Every structure is written in structure tokens, then in C-alpha cells.
Amino acid sequence: MNGSLECRDLTKSFGGLPILRGVSLCLEPGTVTVLAGENGAGKSTLMKIISGQLRPDTGEVLFGGEPLAPGDVHAARGAGVGIVPQELAPIPDLSIYENLFVGREKRTRTGLLDRRGMIRAAREMLTVFGIDLDPRTPMRRLSVGMTQLVEIVKNTSWGARVVLLDEPTSAISDREVERLFTLVDQLRERGVAIVYTTHKMAEIQAVADRVVVLRDGRLVADEPLAALSEHDIVQHMIGRELSELFPERPEPGTEVALRVGGVRRDGAPPVDLEVRAGEIVGLAGLIGAGRTELLETLFGVRARTGGEIEVGGRRLRPNRVTEAIASGMALVPEDRKGAGLVLSMDVLDNGSLPHLGAFSVAGWLRSKARAEAVGSWGRTLGLRSRGLSQEVQTLSGGNQQKVVLGRWLSGDVKVLLLDEPTRGVDIGARSEIYRAIIRLAESGLAVLMASSDMAEVIGLSHRLLVMRGGGVVAELDRRAMDAPDVQERIFRHAAGLHVA
Amino acid sequence: MNVAAPSTTGKNSPAQPPERRGPALGRAGEAVREWAIRNPMVLVMALVILYFLYMSDRFGTVGNLQTIAIAAAPFALIALGQTLVILTGGIDLSVGSVIAASAMTAALVVKDHPERMWLAVLAAVLVGVVVGGISGFAVSRLGVPPFVATLGMMTVASGLAYVLGNGAPINGLPADYSTIANTKVLGIDLPVVIMIVGFIVMIVLMSRTTYGLRVYAVGGNPLASRIAGLNVNRTLFSVYVISGGLAGLSGVILSSRVISAFPSLGSGYELDAIAAVVIGGASLMGGRGTVWGTILGLFLIQTLNNGLDLLIVPSYWQKVIKGVLIIAAVALDVWVVRRRSR
Ligand SMILES: Nc1ncnc2c1ncn2[C@@H]1O[C@H](COP(=O)(O)OP(=O)(O)OP(=O)(O)O)[C@@H](O)[C@H]1O
Ligand SMILES: [Mg+2]
Known about the structure:
The structure holds two protein chains of two kinds.
Chain A: E1 5-14, E2 17-27, E3 32-36, H1 43-50, E4 58-63, E5 66-67, H2 73-78, E6 81-84, H3 96-101, H4 115-128, H5 144-156, E7 162-166, H6 174-189, E8 193-197, H7 201-207, E9 210-215, E10 218-224, H8 230-238, E11 256-265, E12 268-276, E13 280-284, H9 291-299, E14 306-311, E15 314-315, H10 321-326, E16 329-332, H11 336-340, H12 347-352, E17 360-361, E18 364-365, H13 367-381, H14 397-406, E19 415-419, H15 427-442, E20 446-450, H16 454-460, E21 463-468, E22 471-476, H17 478-482, H18 486-495
Parallel strand pairs in A: 3-8, 3-9, 6-7, 7-8, 13-20, 13-21, 16-19, 19-20
Antiparallel strand pairs in A: 1-2, 1-4, 4-5, 9-10, 11-12, 11-14, 14-15, 17-18, 21-22
Chain B: H1 27-38, H2 40-55, H3 62-87, H4 95-112, H5 117-140, H6 146-164, H7 179-182, E1 184-185, E2 188-189, H8 190-208, H9 210-220, H10 222-227, H11 232-258, H12 269-279, H13 291-310, H14 315-340
Antiparallel strand pairs in B: 1-2
């Protein structure tokens, strides 16, 4: 008996639209297989079939030569398949350790919950990962990044023999990625077969033993890492040559569009900053540095306890989202499922939600104008959906992100706050989003962008602010950003290692 | 959402190869099948109707259809209001009591001003709007859970209904009061006309206006709606006001029908309204559901009431049958939705 997992000629379609068109794949123990492909190529669908969440139309999944019952989560789990889904599903009101042990709780001899045992075990599991958190912290209090780390720990620590990681790093910053790699290495040494999807090239180079590329539901490449260059991978993925990822940045204007003076929020030092019209300012930092919190405070979703915010010279009263939007501010939130999208509604409705006023006359929707506007930025960003009436819930992750960003493109926005704008977006679409951001800046928008992707934040910003502990600790201008040691400098500031 | 290939017939056993959409099935056939799979409740409704048609000669007569429609009208109004509330993820338990309180108010007004019928109608609707407004305020501004807020207002409104009549029914209303329920417009009873107008207005409201879209958005994800710049509080507030106002109107129709008002009028009606919405496929978590679904659910319940009456099923057994059918119908619906998305 070998412990390998095999997919034979899997096909799957949704609503008559083929998503997988005959995928065969064999996963060897102790190997990391990177699954690459554009948004909507079918990567998550393939993983869901392997883990029994979806039933294939034809084809089968075999473990050690034995076919697994299709569409049966328990059978897959019984065979040792563990999955960390792209869209996380923590139970927010339970604590970390309760989340880690849900479904396999420890009991004392009397049959009661062994909380102390679980807390102890949970602490150990977290330490292996280098996560310094009290296991009794409620899940709700964690950032998206921390939540992701905890979910990974949860789904790999029970002795799985096949581990499927669906974009495990989309929400964590480069530093935290190292911890993940350590864990992946440990799993590989234990002989676990790992499938890993990511849109980041550097990660492919770092973890892959083998690279499999899906395009439009077909397997177009399956090679050892050494046999493929980065360029090859991208070309397999998008089927064409990619133009330069970061376009030239136009000169920013002089007029200040966003002025933030001594803005305070609970437990953070006051923040001062300015963004001029046409300027792109990057916010770098580690997870927990307070970038998301700062953006939310500026937008008024999070309580501001002091200080002033001016947009285009107009002073905003604290904690009023409607006023922020009326003055021309827009936020693309980090947590697209929780704060960005209404999952039960379709692309058209989600895509026009912030601008209903512009798409209606006296409360009546102007369907045509709405469809045209949404369709137009959809094309700009290369949105892939089955028409505008597809529920966003069933879009691939990257395409969901395009909806959250794109919907602001049709309105009268002066200051755009971006929180991880390309999280989970494939490289082709990412270049489209960068182009769109630059174009917006060119047209006079002020952009404040938090991102954990170093290359992105360096390649796109005019100016860079580094955050730590809720405050801005360093500012790097264009010249400093062009220096070869810039990443190192940012890390030192972000981690508090900098000696001034 | 769209339909994946497997058919609804046949068991969901893993051994069976999943059925694929054959090319032989023509476009039209496919459309009909897809529609049937999407709307299992339509099939349930059809089966119920066929059964009663087969069992009773009187069921299919024009007169009986009128009876069903007339009985449905007051329920329809509160079910429409309930649809809005449930779409936002809330629930309105107070509508039954609002019916009583507004009917009592209308009765008092019409007794004092028999010549000004419109004043009575206005007063009744106003009572509903105020009660709904208080619920809405508690939910949207004070953060009281909808179940609790409307449970409280249910008690308040019911108490007020007794206060208004000193604990007794109000009888001896001017005979003119009965014209509200008995006038015919183009041969159709006024309550039925009001119901149909209500359906049309609500369907248009929910599918063609920004208001409808906001209700869906707020119910689907309040935080995301806020970040998209919607006034979540105002939307929440409004649905309770509308629900209350419609319940007030319903109270007028019901009391006009019997030319009297009593404090227990409408008691328990909120449950039928909620059942209609849920049978119609709405999610109690908010964000999902349609006016069409509610209409279907409403008529399923009304048809059952009527048909079981015709078959002279004892009323206690009617309750048992209705309850079981409601659960079975919704279970079927959920099962179909789940199969579709696998
Ligand atoms: N339940 C569903 N109903 C309809 N369409 C679906 C459903 N699930 C997925 N799809 C469609 O299948 C396609 C593939 O989705 P999948 O999630 O596998 O993409 P992906 O390769 O993981 O993309 P990403 O990189 O963006 O995560 C998408 O176009 C998506 O819209
Ligand atoms: Mg995916």
C-alpha cells in the first residue's frame, strides 16, 4: 500500500458551465505540489472535490488505490485529507483553543470537557508555529492574518496525510509566511503530501517541489520546480505574455486631499499624515501593526477618540461613514467576506451598492446605467463571472476581490483607502488592478494603501509609511524606496529593530 | 444560483453515477425542468391543489376561489410586511396584537364620527405605524434584538387593545363600517383589490427600487452595507414601520368584516405570516427571500385551510396537518437547494 492520492479525469460544471475539464493528478507523500492558475481556473474547486465537499460530475479520487466515496467529507477525512479553505470559517465567539479542538474535544475521565488539557495542548500547537497568543482569546478579536494561522494549525495538527492549503498566505505578511514555511517543511518531512495554491511567485520558488498549472479547468503544466522558470509559470497561467507588472507612476499633485491630524483611537498613539491628490501612499507593517485599524478609523467604521480628519478641506465629524463617503472617501476592506460583500446578492447589486444614488432617479433603479457601469469596470479588471447575475458567493476568491475594488471605480471618489487590494488576486489581474490604481491616481485621486506584499507596496507607492504598535514609525520617500536594501529597512522599522 | 446537473429523482447514493444533462433534452424541456427544480414549492402547491380538486367538487368553483382570496387578504398584508422585516434578518411578532389595537382604535373613531370613515382607517394605520416605529427604534437605535423588541410591543399593543375597549368588544358600529370589507370594485371585493395592489407595489418595490436593494443588502451583511455607505439604521427602522402600518390596515379589514372589534382579534396571526414567508423560501438570517415566495407560501396555507374545511376535517386535526406540511415543504426546499450547490 502506498499512501498516495490520485485524481482520475475529474470533471465538474456549475450550471452547465464546465469548470474542470478532465484533471488527472497524483500526489506523492512528502512532496509539496504548488497548484497555480488564474482566478477562476478551478483550483479551489479541485481541492473541494479532493476533500469531499463537492462531488465531481465524472472521474474519481483514489487513496492508496481505493476510490473514495465522492462528495463525502467524512470519507476524505477518514483517509487523512485535511483542508484549509480559502474562505475561512472560524467560529468567532469561541476561543482559539475551542476552535482548535472543535469536533475532537478532549474529555476528562468523567466525560466532561477537559478545558485545561485543551488549553495546554493548544498552547503547544501555537508555539510550534511561533504564534504568541493566549489560547483563551476569543477568535473574534484576531485579525484576518492571525485567524488564518490558527486555521492552518487546526487543520494540520491532527495527523493528516494529505494537506490541502488553499491560498494560505493571502492574508499574512511576508514575515509570518516564514512560520508557515517552517510548518510546511515539518509536514513534508513527516511524509505528508501537500497541495498549496498561491498567486505569489516568490512563494512558489520557496516551497514547491513540483508545479501544476491549471488554466480554464485543464492541467496545462505539471513539472518539477527546477524545470520551470517564473516566466514559464506565468505564461502557462495566463496563456500570454505579461507586460510590466508595475507601470510608471505619474507625478503627484500638490493639493492635499486627505489631512489627518493627531487622530486617536483606543490603545494607539495619535497619527498624523497627509496624502496629496494624485499621490499613492503605502502603509507597510507586520500583522497587528494597526494598518487596518487606522484605515477603519479614518473611514469612520471604528471609533475615533480624538484628532481631525479633513477630506478636500472638509472636516469630518467622527464615526460617520455616510459623511466620509459623501465627502468622497472610499474603503476597500481587508475582510472581503465580512465587511466587503453581501454574499447573497449578485455581482450587479454588490457592484453598484455604494452608488445607488447615481444609478437611480427618485428611488427607481436605472437598470441599464447600472449594468453598463458595472460591466465596464468588470471588463477593465478582467472580472470573470457568469454574467452580472451570478451570486458573489460562488465567484472565485480573486474575482470577489475585483468586485469589492471595482465598485468604487464608477463613482466620484477623492480619497481611496485600500486594505490589501490584491489579496488573492492572480498575477494577470493584479497587473490590471495596479494599472487601475495608477490611472485613478493620475486622474487626481489620493490613495492610501495598506499592503503586506512588499513588492506591491514598494512598486506602487510614491511614499511609504511604516507602522508599528498602531503608530507611524517611519517614512520613506521615493529615493529611499529605490535603494537596494529597502525591504530590509522596512522590516527593521516594522519589527522595532531599528536603531536611529 | 444555477442548477448543477443531477436530477432530483433517484436517491443520492454514492454508488450511482451522477446523471448528466443529456443533450437530447431540448432547450425548452431543460428550462421547464430547471424551473421545477428551482421551485419545489410550486410543485407542492400544485399537488395540494390537485388533491383537493380530486377530493372535493366544490373546491374548484369560482365562488370558492373568491372565498380563498377574501380570507387571504388580511393575512397577505401582514405577510408582506413580515417579508421586509425577515429580509433584514429580523422578525415582527407584534403584528397580531397590532391588528387588535388598530381595530379597536378604528371602532372607537368610527363610533364617534360615523360619517368620516377615512378617519377611522387613518387612525388604525397610524396606530400600526407608531407601534412599528417603536419596535424599529428599539432595534435600529438601541440595538435590542428584533425578537425581544417586537415581543415587547406585542404585549404592549395587546394590552392597549384591552384598555381601549375596557376589556370588552366594541359592538354596535354603524352599518356603513362594513362597506370597507364588502364594497366591490369591478366585481372584486375591496380587500382582495387591496391585496393585489399590495402584491404589485411590493414586487416592484423590492425588485426595481433602491429601497428594495437596500433591504436585501442590510439583511445580507450589515457591516458591508455600512461600508458601502448605506444608512443601515434608517433601513431597519423603516421595515418595522411598514410592517406595523400594513398590520393596521389589516385590522380595519378584519373588523369591518364582522362590524365589530374585539381585543383578541388577530391573535396568533403573526405566526401564519411568518410561516408564509419562510415557506416562500426566505431565510430567517436575512438577505434571502422574495415577495413571490411569500405569495406562494400565503396561498399554500390559505388553500390548506380552505380545502381541509371543505373536507370537514376537524379543526384540531387541521392544525396538526398544517404544521407537518409546513415542515415537510421547507425541508424539501432546503434539500433541493443543498443538492443544487454540491
Ligand atoms: N457553487 C458554484 N456555483 C456556480 N459557480 C461556481 C460555484 N463554485 C465555483 N464556481 C465557479 O467556478 C469557477 C472556478 O472557481 P474556483 O473557486 O475553483 O477558482 P480558483 O481557481 O480557486 O480561483 P481563485 O484563484 O480566485 O481562488 C469560478 O469561475 C466560479 O465562479
Ligand atoms: Mg480559489
